[in-house]
Amino acid sequence: MAVELRSESFDPWQVLHTHQNEKPELAGKFGATSIFVGTMRDFNDGNDVQAMTLEHYPAMTQKHLEAISSEAEQRWNLLDTLIIHRYGDIQPNDPIVLLAVWSAHRSESFPACRYLIEELKTRAPFWKQETTGANSHWVEHNTPG
Amino acid sequence: MSITVKFFASLRETIGKSDVSLDADNITTAADVWRMATDNHDPVGNMLIAINMEYASLDETVKDGDEVAFFPPVTGG
User: Fold this and answer.
1) Considering the domain B2-71, what is its CATH architecture?
2) Domain A2-20+29-138 has CATH 3.90.1170.40
3) B53–A contact, CB cutoff 8 A
4) Residue A58: exposed, middle, or buried by beta-carbon count in 10 A (0-12, 13-18, 19+)?
5) Is the backbone of residue A87 left (phi > 0), alpha (psi -120 to 50) or beta?
6) CA distances from A50 to A9, A45, A53, A129 (A)
7) Interval B5-29: pLDDT, tens
8) Which of A57, A123, A124 is nearest residue B8 as measured by Cβ atoms?
9) What is the ipTM of this complex?
């Protein structure tokens, strides 16, 4: 299980490649890897969005993302989980979040990955502030999943 | 009793503060913390509360040394 909060842009595919290579003990053990990548759009609620700032409550965010990962590992038979989440200034097309779940079978990895993103969206203390034209505003709710 | 108070995002802007240190004896609940830290600002309808980084309610008891945070609904992911 790994949870990382990053202030800099990241390549989710490179992160996955590196993470998996650093776990040679899992080679041959996992038959399913389920992944969710959340990426910043250039539109929201009918507005063009030029940029976004993602504020967070650092220690509480880390604590709850680790708790969510532990809950998924208790609920499903998983081999590993990974959560990477951005904070700070974000541009359209930047990845915001990467979630990955490794398990022997897809019947474990798919629901676990879904659980991670839905719980993250309701429990992890992040707040998006979007820049639209000359104005900025706080995003007040998540898009339904 | 000493309490560290934090406000985040739109609630920080509404209250005009990010961090407050309270040192008073007449604090029992998170609601007392809110009143003292915000100079009696009305509670914001959809705000969330965390005590020591666990979600809580306004009527929850606080103790010396606690960190109490107030913030709007979360929008990560």
Assistant:
1) Roll (3.10)
2) yes
3) yes
4) exposed
5) beta
6) 16, 13, 11, 11
7) 999 999 999 999 999 999 999 999 9
8) A57
9) 0.96
